[in-house]
Amino acid sequence: MQPALNLKQKRIESIDLLRGLVMIIMALDHVRDYFHAGAFMYDPLDLEKTTPLLFFTRWITHFCAPVFIFLAGTSAFLTGQKKSKKELSLFLLKRGAWLILLELTLINFLWNFDLAFNNIYFIVIWTLGISMIFLAAFIHLPNKLILLIGVVLVAGHNLLDQVHVPGNTFKAFGWSLLHDQMFFTWQGKNILVGYPVLPWIGVMALGYCFGRLFTTAYNQQQRKKILLLIGGSAVALFIIIRFINVYGDPVPWSQQPSPLYTFLSFIKANKYPPSLLYILMTLGPSILFLAFTENIRNSISRFISIYGRVPMFYYLLHIFLVHLLAMLAAGLFTQHSWNVWILEQPLWFAEDLKGYGFSLSVVYLVWFIVVVALYPLCKWYDRYKINHKEKRWLSYL
């Protein structure tokens, strides 16, 4: 007989800590998008143009989306210990639909500050919403079958890497939503499918299965051993599969002019959509992090965890603040006008922004300012949620 699950789950501080850490790191990437001089000229992972510091400034942020979506699945499992399957399924359906609506309206506006909505982005929050809608159906299946679905989607989707549907057609758009990052135009609008959903659905399904490790079915010592095994195995698989250089990522690594750049080529994995190697490379160390942080309690962990307790609130605020600061910086410190940041072209390809930008040192300074400035608001909102649990709408933000 299996031990009973804990029906009164408390927040798991190591999960809040990990989520908070990746939320803080995420802001670095978005500050770089809006402030770095090279952001509008070349890919920071382009080994022919980047520097090691710029490469790692971008590369470290690869951990954010996989951890965010994986832990959303874990949180869904833990929420399900206090709800019936029917209640959880309905909650996931409603929250998923709400996140998609939020992505296509408020979040798109925050990215562009353009009331005409000339740019429409299908990026991380839309993917989170779609994955929740699929999970709403998956939870009615046996856990072993959910695990199998997650493994197949994550490990097998790279078989589709050579499948493309060209053109600015509805069929191409549909395939892009599933597995092929592309740009489209529709009635004068620029449409970016940045996060094809197929592997992300698998990541959330795996996160849901992972949640069982944080119930009373496992004591802390058992959990740590399993986390070390899972995380260590993922890292080892990444190294082995990447070294073989045959499967797991659409772009093989290659010898570079120096050992350092060869290493950078080795760890440069595809994010759009996330390859098997990308997911192993990011979730493996993240699970090891959980194994070693369950008992950490100090002022630093409490500070970081605040962002992990209110991730959607922080996400919305940080995009607004970073964008607003970019407008001020353009008007005050460059030859550009502040309204250069009302974007009618996609952020990463805006011709008007070529020649704008600052050094990486400025990027890191603005990142620090943004994170610290948002802490009081995040702490206030966390307390508000704790003190107003009767307000169900708070679970959607």
Describe this structure in words.
Residues 11-222 form the Heparan-alpha-glucosaminide N-acetyltransferase catalytic domain. It comes from Lacibacter sediminis. Keywords: Membrane, Transmembrane, Transmembrane helix. It holds the Pfam family HGSNAT_cat. The chain crosses the membrane at residues 59-80, 92-113, 119-138, 192-214, 226-244, 275-292, 313-335, 355-378. The chain has 397 residues and is mainly α. The chain has one domain. It is built from 14 helices and 3 strands. It has helices spanning 13-35, 52-59, 64-79, 85-112, 124-138, 143-156, 170-179, 198-210, 220-244, 259-267, 276-293, 299-309, 311-333, 360-387, and strands at 119-122, 182-186, 189-193. It has a 3-stranded mixed beta sheet. A hairpin with a 2-residue loop joins strand 2 and strand 3 (189-193). Helix 1 packs antiparallel against helix 3 (64-79) and helix 12 (299-309) packs across helix 14 (360-387). The longest helix has 28 residues, at 85-112. Mean pLDDT is 93; it is low at 1-8.
